[in-house]
Specification:
The protein is mostly helical and 438 residues long. It has helices at residues 3-9, 13-18, 25-55, 60-84, 87-109, 116-144, 147-208, 224-231, 233-263, 267-300, 302-306, 308-322, 326-351, 357-388, 393-399, 401-437.
Length: 438
């Protein structure tokens, strides 16, 4: 963009700061608020899941496996919905399905007095809910915004989610002692209802502005998205990115659960500890999303921007392997999750703006759910196996350095592939506009 174009696109300092062009505010604002309430509701619930994980630390590998099985069951159902209904139907229907289930858990917890099986059911449900509804959100965003817009706006849109994720744990920490888990769940349920309404409003606005594609039924087979993943080198590289990241993230999650189980006692105390961690993560992530990530992608290019998280984490793992403790371990997890939400998340969603609509919804949903949770299951069983074999958390830390090296290598080639596909798509758009003008 030239200096003249830049001055015309950004009419005030706020637009220049956020990188929102003058005609994009309504769509951006709806998307920002939609993600704010969606993640605000989820992050009210996440500290409860952290507490449940600590209460059931010895069963985490089984809970991951149960989550993976649930993902396998739900993906074909979603594929069927996408194949037969337009987006304005299957997006709100998906959210309302989970809202009804949350209402059941709010009743079943009866404050904090939930049986172990109800707690474990809630853990599995929230793990499915998180990946599924966020995947649907970003599939929706790749339908609404073009690749060039995505590189400018996805970081700031994700910042809306981080703002909700900052307020969510604060609300949980403030009220959990008084209203219990049931009250927290009801607050989250209200947020999710608002998010559903905003999703409907954004879809209607997009259709009114002439984007007819979003109102079309995608069609195709139920398992077509999964088949497409194995046909595409590009989608397989995205799978590698998620696999290596999740191997790292799951080790940090399980390790922290073990350390918390050893050193902190009490439901409310553990919930408050995880609330503080979630708050720190989201404050850092919000700063990255709002001010840093989109500029890094523009200045450095996708390949260089994509390798920053694994490079920084490799340094953190070297430090962690040399000195172990609850606070240091928590700090490394905060760094990992901050970069996941603040950098890797926006970058990953940008990657899907250069694929077809069927791949955006079906293949993306398969990757975000089955592949994501499948890598979680693998990582959890690996962690269980290594600890059963007598390895300590410090020793396991060193074993993850090759995983981080594979992550960085795959991210570099994926970024280069993205740039090539984005260039081809831009060229096709230019040729189409010339034909239309001619």
């Amino acid at each position: 963009m030239s200096v003249t174009d830049d001055a015309r696109a950004y009419r005030n300092p706020l637009e220049r700061l956020v990188r929102v062009e003058h005609g994009e505010w309504k769509a951006f604002g709806l998307a920002f608020a939609y993600f704010f309430f969606l993640l605000g509701g989820y992050f009210m619930l996440r500290p409860l899941r952290g507490t449940v994980a600590s209460n059931n630390a010895e069963y985490l590998h089984l809970l991951y496996t149960a989550t993976f099985v649930c993902m396998l069951l739900i993906v074909p159902v979603f594929g069927w919905l996408v194949s037969r209904f337009r987006r304005g139907v299957f997006v709100p229907a998906s959210y309302l399905f989970f809202i009804l289930q949350l209402g059941f858990f709010a009743w079943a917890f009866r404050g904090n007095d939930a049986t172990p099986w109800v707690q474990r059911g809630f853990y599995v449900w929230l793990s499915v809910f998180n990946l599924f509804v966020v995947s649907v959100f970003w599939s929706f965003m790749t339908d609404v915004f073009r690749p060039g817009q995505a590189q400018r706006l996805f970081g700031a849109i994700m910042a809306g989610g981080s703002l909700g994720a900052i307020i969510g744990p604060l609300a949980t920490r403030q009220f959990v002692a008084d209203i219990g888990a049931t009250g927290v769940m009801l607050m989250a349920l209200a947020c999710l209802l608002v998010a559903t309404g905003l999703a409907i409003a954004l879809g209607r606005y997009e259709r009114r502005t002439g984007h007819a594609e979003g109102g079309e039924v995608i069609g195709g087979g139920v398992w077509e998205g999964a088949i497409e993943v194995f046909r595409s080198k590009y989608l397989l590289l995205i799978c590698l990115l998620m696999l290596t990241h999740n191997l790292t993230a799951t080790f940090l999650y399980n390790g922290l659960a073990v350390l918390v189980d050893r050193e902190i006692t009490g439901f409310a105390e553990r919930t408050e500890f995880f609330s503080v961690i979630d708050l720190a993560v989201q404050v850092i992530a919000f700063t990255l999303q709002f001010l840093v990530t989109s500029r890094l992608v523009t200045w450095l290019g996708m390949p260089r921007a994509a390798i920053i998280p694994p490079m920084l984490l490799a340094g953190g793992f070297v430090i962690l392997g040399s000195s172990m403790g609850l606070v240091l371990f928590a700090a490394i997890q905060v760094a990992q999750r901050s970069m996941n939400y603040g950098m890797l998340g926006p970058i990953k969603e940008m990657l899907f703006t250069v694929v077809s609509r069927e791949q955006r919804y079906k293949s993306k949903n398969f990757i975000d759910t089955v592949v994501y949770r499948g890598s979680d299951v693998t990582a959890s069983w690996l962690f269980k196996g290594m600890t059963t074999a007598g390895l300590g958390i410090t020793q396991i830390t060193w074993l993850y350095l090759p995983v981080l090296a594979a992550w960085g290598t795959g991210a570099w080639f994926l970024g280069r592939h993205f740039q090539r596909l984005a260039g081809e798509r831009a060229e096709k758009g230019y040729e189409a506009s010339r034909e239309k003008a001619g």
